[in-house]
Specification:
Radius of gyration: 32 Å
Oligomer: single chain
Number of helices: 3
CATH class of the largest domain: Alpha Beta
Number of strands: 6
Strand order of the largest sheet: 1-3-5
Largest sheet: 3 strands, parallel
CATH architecture of the largest domain: Ribosomal Protein L15, Chain: K, domain 2
Helix content: 10-25%
Distance between the termini: 73 Å
């Protein structure tokens, strides 16, 4: 078998429907769009979610809850992520960004207690969980909350 002998499987290829190419094609004149109206126009058609004049589902369903526009978005750092720093290092915002643990500041940096740490570090963050603070202090380090 050669490359020039290759053919697609029977029935897998079908010619596209060529609209508006004369009466004999079966798709001439209005080309399957009917006569007049929104669907017949170029660029026409109903918007997404339109239900033919029926009250759309996004208006039939009740609104629920609310969004707190004052909510703070913290960048999260886990205790296990601090293992990449040397013993006695001062880990602050600049160090966390340089090491790639934090991408952009948001409203601050919060330290959480996932994982373990075995070296003393000085950590300067905006918020810290009680468990994370206990783990760092147990390893001989200290946490400073700005």
């Amino acid at each position: 078998m050669k490359l020039n002998d290759l053919k697609p499987a029977a029935g897998s290829k079908k010619n596209t429907k060529r609209l508006g190419r004369g009466v004999g094609s079966g798709w001439g004149k209005t080309a399957g769009r009917g006569t007049k109206g929104l669907g017949a126009r170029s660029g026409g058609g109903v918007r997404p979610g339109y239900e033919g004049g029926q009250m759309p589902i996004h208006r039939r369903l009740p609104k629920r809850g609310f969004t707190n526009i004052f909510k703070k978005q913290f960048a999260i750092v886990n205790v296990k992520d601090l293992a990449r720093f040397e013993e006695g290092a001062i880990v602050d915002e600049a160090e966390l960004i340089r090491s790639g643990l934090v991408k952009g500041r948001r409203d601050g940096i919060k330290l959480l207690a996932v994982g373990e740490i075995d070296r003393p570090l000085t950590v300067k963050v905006d918020a810290v969980s009680q468990a994370a603070k206990a783990k760092i202090e147990a390893a001989g380090g200290k946490v400073e909350v700005a």
